[in-house]
Design a protein that fits this description.
This protein has helices spanning 3-9, 19-41, 92-104, 181-188, 195-205, 216-227, 235-246; strands at 117-126, 138-146, 151-155, 163-167, 251-253, 258-259, 265-276, 282-289, 296-303, 306-319. The chain has 326 residues and is α+β, with helices and mostly antiparallel strands. Strands 1, 2, 3, 4, 5, 6, 7, 8, 9 and 10 form a 10-stranded antiparallel β-sheet that branches. Strand 7 (265-276) and strand 8 form a beta hairpin. It is globular and about 45 Å long.
């Protein structure tokens, strides 16, 4: 029996399938979710895989980088609801300088305790093919990672799913190049707000592996891209990342506020890659910024200039226990 085909054929009023029948599909999706959290924590290689809906599970990658600036543990972050911003004619460097100045004015971020968890709710999207009639290519992902990197949890987007927790050892090189949110935050506190100095600090750390034939600018972009995925981001360090990114070529700003997969207004900053995708088209990134806080609230993958997948943050919060949302 093909369990995922059975899930595809479920009607809205159908009873929830039993755990035994869904076990193989559940295991594949759980592994994909694990890979997604690891790709956020990765500091040694860049992974960004198109998020697929449950009915056609392939892989999931989760990227988001925003927590409440100041406030109490458990505070929720939601993208802006009704921005008014003029982006026409704005260059990537101008947008990133505006973003850097905005985040510098924000208060200190909430720093979790070691045993607390970072909860993230995102909307994943798969834009490679049109949705089937009556269905959508979007699904909601709910995930938790402990601040010290010792465990992750998730509730899979499928009928009857329950919270599943897996142990991990992200700190001190316990799982290769991966890093815990705490380790990434600690490094980001050492990154200055000045762009040139921030770029030097990143290059001195030399945290990710080299790729044969890539330019220094391409490597710098990979390093910055990984660090932008830091879930707990100090304001000064984020300002430095933005200014460092502004020194690199290739960025383009969409001249109007766009809607992300969650239906929220965001600013889109696109970088076309040099790599050739499976269809022979250039692959690229589209960073999604909240138009009020200017923090990253999503990331999309492009192919030949078209969005083919990605994710959008709905909520992020520090909680005391996996399974809690606030």
């Amino acid at each position: 029996m093909d369990e995922m085909t059975e899930v595809r054929n479920l009607r809205a009023d159908a009873p929830a399938p039993d755990r035994a029948r869904l076990a193989p599909g559940r295991a594949r999706l759980a592994e994909a979710v694990t890979a997604g959290w690891r790709s956020r924590a990765v500091w040694g290689r860049r992974k960004f895989v198109i998020a697929a809906v449950v009915v056609s599970v392939t892989a999931v990658a989760v990227t988001a980088s925003v927590l409440a600036d100041g406030g109490d543990s458990g505070r929720t972050v939601r993208p802006a609801a009704s921005p008014s911003i003029n982006l026409k004619g704005m260059s990537a460097a101008e947008l990133l300088e505006r973003a850097a100045r905005t985040v510098e004015r924000q208060g200190p971020v909430t720093v979790p305790r070691a045993k607390q968890w970072i909860y993230t709710e995102t909307v994943q999207e798969d834009g490679r093919k049109p949705p089937e009639e009556g269905r959508t290519n979007h699904f909601t992902s709910r995930q938790w990672i402990r601040y010290d990197g010792s465990a992750i949890g998730s509730v899979l987007p499928m009928p009857g799913a329950e919270l599943e927790i897996r142990s991990m050892r992200l700190e001190n090189g316990g799982e290769g190049d991966d890093r815990s949110p705490r380790e990434m935050y600690r490094f980001m506190t050492t990154v200055p707000a000045d762009g040139d100095k921030a770029l030097k600090a990143i290059r001195d750390e030399h945290a990710i592996g080299d790729i044969e034939g890539e330019t220094e600018a391409q490597r710098d972009y990979r390093e910055i891209g990984v660090l932008l995925d830091t879930p707990v981001m100090p304001s000064e360090g984020l300002a430095g990342l933005y200014r460092a990114l502004a020194t690199l070529p290739g960025g383009e700003v969409t001249d109007h506020v766009v809607r992300n997969a969650a239906g929220r207004p965001v600013i889109a900053l696109r970088y076309e890659g040099k790599d050739i995708g499976p269809t022979g088209l250039k692959m690229g990134d589209e960073w999604l910024l909240d138009p009020q806080t200017y923090r990253v609230v999503g990331r999309r993958l492009t192919e030949g200039g078209k969005v083919v997948g990605g994710n959008s943050t709905v909520t992020m919060a520090v909680v005391d226990k996996a399974g809690r949302r606030s």
